[in-house]
């Protein structure tokens, strides 16, 4: 009511799609921040928009003032700018990346330069575009990957040595991951120097048995190109992965026999605090058993130290941390919630560090001086995040953040300070500096008050957080109403969801770009709501993993039930309920308009999976096993098999160059709809990937969706 009054007393400005996609409402962030070894300074990458120069500047944690500059291209000959940088372990040298060329979601190749911070000498590492260059611990060498082979460059002698020779595109990969590892296991660099710099452990992928997928890229030439790459769909052959050890002195490479495994993944390798002991994680194809293995780099012997099992699946994380005595930190859902555990070097459990009906959502690290671990969790509610510290014995827990909302920390190297990024539904991102020992505020670094001033003339509606009782659970929900909302009127409802396993769309955080679009729709008389149903994350393993082997079943039941319950509200028009989503959310929106055709009258599916048989092995089989084992789970929950149920208005959208959820999903769905003689709308964005962006693409897409909603809901 107060919002309506404020609108009445001041002229309200309506937001436009052009304004949303112009970046007018974007938040300011700290870019490429890295803590220096001294623990009292950090570096950031700066770009001068006027001159085009790039620099890496050093700032004091305590004062926030710039103390010095490590490199500035205005003082360099032969290098005008760079897009990324990495420091050597002792921070005496830098790698500067220029002219990046994207490969897939996380991977790219670039031209790299070596910059000596003391001498100011700049050296071109290679004339070739290479991947993942990494200094050895003593800075004397750099390992990198070119054309699927690993090379070692000698910094002193200015020479390179090729250490693998069988790399071949779409066949053998050394030192970087294949498509499915990169996409679903979240890493690209698949080699690691040991602490002495005399061994390199690396993964080798034999893709020869993996089926190829091809996409026509139309471009602007007379004839289109074809992109061909290895993509293992559910139930098909994966790459044969193997672990290898290279001895720098002898130049010998040895394949490591990890044990009696077949059809498995190696999702992580990491050196321990012992110079010649490597840890490797081996995950079976069903992903319900993970072994942590210690590999001796001197005699190549192996030992299983820890085995993690789960009836559904085991999550792979980057939380493994080795302490000085080689005991280690591990996170697990074994008690029903994700928590921190401390193990001895031999794999014997020393202590469960955190406990409770809440989730550890981020592990930041361990400070040996105070014997404290730092982590983020949902102890203050599943839509919130707070930062805590705790001793390794599980005692002395301290909450280090005070404001209720989403807090995320970035700690200095010595755990003296942390920079806290805070947001909630009322507050755009703000950055503050705190003492790690007690959370005490040191100073404010950056806020987004200017954004709030920009927003004032629009009188945006708040994003209201609540819960909705559905199918025996209290589901998290947000809702956005028109700014002139009147309880006596009836409004059409548009529901958004993603719904993927372990995801979260309802959080105590400020507007993102889609939220501004929802404000535009609210201005035009729509209510927008989002409900996180079963299968989503941060409410315990049982809530998340109930969807196992039935992706889309329980998630859809919850969206249908939520829509029915919302439709019972006096101010919701139950005959005008629509739903939309992207990727997994597009899969769900498609199912909703088909299986929920008595509830939903309109749906928009962007880049949807239409049959899980079309998607990749690692993601799909993690939740569904293989189609050969679970045919009914695949087929009964895939929208392509339910096209005959379509009654409402349906828009399906896809990017023609989507290497993730292939256009095949939409084309096969379109053909099924045609043969069922069902009318629908569809749009293909030529050559665009899973994000469907570039130039005016997003503006065009959201204009199309807006018009579709206004016409059909």
From TrEMBL:
Peptidase S9 prolyl oligopeptidase catalytic domain boundaries: 518-713
Segments forming domain Dipeptidylpeptidase IV N-terminal: 88-429
Alphabetically ordered keywords of this record: Glycoprotein, Hydrolase, Protease
InterPro entries assigned to the protein according to its UniProt record, in alphabetical order: AB_hydrolase_fold, Pept_S9_AS, Peptidase_S9_cat, Peptidase_S9B_N, Serine_Prot_S9B/DPPIV
GO BP annotations, alphabetical order: proteolysis
SUPFAM superfamilies: alpha/beta-Hydrolases, DPP6 N-terminal domain-like
One Pfam family this sequence matches: DPPIV_N
Name the UniProt record assigns to this protein: Dipeptidyl-peptidase IV
Gene source species: Zunongwangia profunda (strain DSM 18752 / CCTCC AB 206139 / SM-A87)
């Amino acid at each position: 009511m107060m919002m309506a009054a404020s609108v009445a007393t001041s002229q309200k400005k309506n937001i436009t799609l052009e304004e949303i996609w112009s970046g007018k409402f974007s938040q300011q962030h700290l870019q490429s921040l890295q803590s220096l070894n001294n623990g009292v300074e950090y570096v950031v990458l700066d770009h001068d928009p006027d001159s085009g120069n790039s620099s890496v500047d050093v700032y004091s944690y305590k004062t926030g003032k710039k103390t010095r500059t490590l490199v500035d291209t205005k003082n360099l000959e032969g290098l005008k700018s760079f897009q990324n940088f990495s420091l050597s372990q002792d921070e005496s040298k830098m790698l500067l990346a220029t002219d990046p060329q994207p490969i897939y979601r996380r991977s790219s190749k670039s031209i790299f330069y070596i910059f000596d911070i003391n001498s100011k000498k700049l050296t071109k590492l290679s004339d070739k575009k290479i991947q993942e260059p990494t200094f050895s611990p003593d800075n004397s060498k750099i390992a990198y990957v070119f054309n699927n082979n690993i090379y070692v460059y000698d910094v002193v002698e200015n020479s390179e040595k090729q250490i693998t020779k069988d790399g071949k595109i779409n066949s053998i990969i050394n030192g970087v991951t294949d498509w499915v590892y990169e996409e679903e296991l979240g890493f690209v660099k698949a080699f690691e120097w040991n602490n002495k710099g005399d061994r390199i452990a690396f993964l080798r992928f034999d893709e020869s048995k993996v089926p190829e997928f091809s996409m026509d890229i139309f471009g602007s030439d007379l004839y289109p190109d074809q992109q061909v790459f290895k993509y293992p769909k559910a139930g098909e052959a994966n790459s044969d992965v193997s672990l290898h050890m290279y001895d720098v002195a002898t130049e010998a490479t040895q394949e490591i026999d990890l044990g009696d495994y077949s059809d498995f993944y190696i999702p992580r390798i990491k050196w321990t605090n012992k110079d010649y002991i490597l840890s490797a994680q081996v995950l079976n194809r069903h992903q319900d058993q993970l072994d942590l293995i210690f590999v001796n780099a001197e005699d190549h012997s192996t030992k299983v130290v820890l085995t993690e099992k789960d009836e559904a699946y085991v999550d792979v994380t980057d939380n493994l941390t080795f302490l000085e005595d080689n005991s280690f930190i591990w996170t697990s859902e074994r008690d029903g919630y994700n928590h921190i555990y401390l193990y001895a070097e031999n794999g014997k459990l020393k202590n469960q560090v955190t406990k409770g009906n809440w989730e550890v959502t981020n592990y930041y690290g361990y400070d040996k001086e105070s014997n404290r671990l730092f982590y983020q969790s949902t102890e203050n509610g599943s839509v919130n995040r707070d930062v805590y510290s705790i001793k390794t014995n599980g005692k002395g827990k301290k909450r280090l953040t005070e404001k209720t909302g989403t807090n995320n920390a970035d700690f200095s190297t010595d755990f003296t300070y942390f920079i806290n990024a805070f947001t909630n539904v009322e507050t755009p991102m703000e950055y503050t500096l705190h003492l790690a020992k007690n959370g005490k505020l040191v100073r404010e670094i950056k806020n987004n008050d200017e954004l709030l001033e920009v927003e004032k003339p629009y009188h945006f509606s708040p994003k209201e957080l609540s819960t909705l009782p559905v199918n025996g659970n209290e589901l998290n929900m947000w809702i956005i109403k028109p700014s002139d909302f009147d309880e006596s009127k009836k409004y059409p409802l548009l529901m958004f969801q993603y719904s993927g396993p372990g995801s979260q769309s309802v959080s105590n955080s400020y507007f993102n770009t889609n939220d501004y679009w929802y404000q535009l729709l609210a201005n035009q008389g729509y209510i927008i709501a989002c409900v996180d149903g079963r299968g989503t994350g941060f409410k315990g393993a049982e809530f998340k993993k109930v969807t196992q082997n039935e992706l889309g079943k329980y998630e859809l039941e919850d969206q249908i039930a939520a829509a029915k319950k919302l439709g019972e509200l006096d101010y919701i028009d139950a005959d005008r309920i629509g739903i939309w989503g992207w990727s997994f959310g597009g899969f769900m929106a498609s199912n909703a308009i088909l299986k929920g055709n008595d509830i939903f009258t309109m749906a928009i599916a962007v880049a949807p999976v239409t049959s899980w048989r079309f998607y990749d092995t690692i993601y799909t089989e993690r939740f569904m096993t293989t189609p050969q084992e679970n045919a009914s789970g695949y087929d009964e929950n895939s929208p392509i098999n339910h096209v005959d149920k379509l009654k409402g208005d349906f828009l399906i959208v896809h990017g023609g160059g989507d290497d993730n959820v292939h256009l095949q999903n939409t084309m096969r769905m379109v053909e099924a709809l045609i043969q069922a003689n069902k009318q629908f709308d569809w749009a293909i964005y030529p050559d665009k990937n899973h994000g469907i962006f570039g130039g005016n693409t997003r503006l065009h897409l959201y204009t199309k969706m807006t018009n579709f909603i206004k016409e059909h809901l």
